[in-house]
Amino acid sequence: MVEAAGGSALTLMQLVAQLFSGFRDHAVYKGHQVFLYKRAQIFVGDVYGAFGGEGLGAFWDIDQLTMFADYRVPVVLRNMGILSYSDELVAKVERKEIIPAGSEEEVEIRACTVVAVERLREAIAHKFRGTGAQLPHAIQLDWWLWEIGEQNRQNHPPHHRTLTIFY
Ligand SMILES: Nc1nc2c(c(CN[C@H]3C=C[C@H](O)[C@@H]3O)cn2[C@@H]2O[C@H](COP(=O)(O)O)[C@@H](O)[C@H]2O)c(=O)[nH]1
After folding, report:
1. Are strands 32-35 and 26-29 parallel, antiparallel or unpaired?
2. Looking at 65, 97, 112, which one is the last position of a domain?
3. How many other CB atoms sit within 10 Å of the CB of residue 133?
4. Is 70 among the residues known to form the active site?
5. Is 135:54 a contact under the CB 8 Å cutoff?
6. Does the record's keyword annotation contain Nuclease (predicted)?
7. Distance 131 CA to ligand 1 centre (A)
């Protein structure tokens, strides 16, 4: 399957989503279909990481993947003041109330995380414009943010609770 993707991260992600229904991570939000594809993308990210971006892990479009929208990174972004939740949502998350999979709140948390990481990339690109610095891919920012979240599991506020097969 990796070989069939011909070095394209997006093709590999699409193949995974086509072949395995459990990876077809999408939702309908206010009448619009939203594709998050967390596990299909993290699979490609893991192949890329495991091969150090070479051989089977060489993808010319790796920068096209988004961060992997799940539950740890939004906590970190909230803590950094990059994401903010409504008082109502904060209360639900703090009470560890189940936020149903595919509900508006759950899709908003995940989709806003993707957008926030893209904005972070833009801000980094702006700050380092003209310096020749190599800009991070969304998945590299994900790894960095996720690691911060893992290291702070005890002192960060709780993450949202959702029963789902998608992350
Ligand atoms: N957004 C995001 N979510 C991530 C990861 C990782 C760690 N993996 C990276 C580390 C090196 C590799 O290159 C991997 O990519 C795990 N998780 C999620 O947490 C959950 C628990 O997982 P565990 O503790 O394994 O059982 C599961 O839903 C898992 O998918 C990440 O990096 N970003």
Report:
1. antiparallel
2. 65
3. 11
4. yes
5. no
6. no
7. 32
Phi-psi region of 91 (alpha: psi -120 to 50; beta: other; left: phi over 0): alpha
The SS3 of residue 35 is strand
The per-residue pLDDT string of the chain (167 residues; one tens digit each, 9 = 90 and over) reads 999 999 999 999 999 999 999 999 999 999 999 999 999 999 999 999 999 999 999 999 999 999 999 999 999 999 999 999 999 999 999 999 999 999 999 999 999 999 999 999 999 999 999 999 999 999 999 999 999 999 999 999 999 999 999 99
Question: Among 65, 68, 109, 150, which residue has the most ligand 1 atoms within 8 Å of its CB, making it the best to mutate?
Answer: 68
The last residue of one of the domains, among 17, 39, 65, is 65
Range of the domain at 101: 67-167
Q: Which of 136, 146, 91, 88 is nearest to 113 (CA)?
A: 146
* Beta bridge mates, 32: 29
What's the gap in Å between 129 CA and the centre of ligand 1?
31
Tell me, yes or no, whether 138 and 86 share the same domain: yes
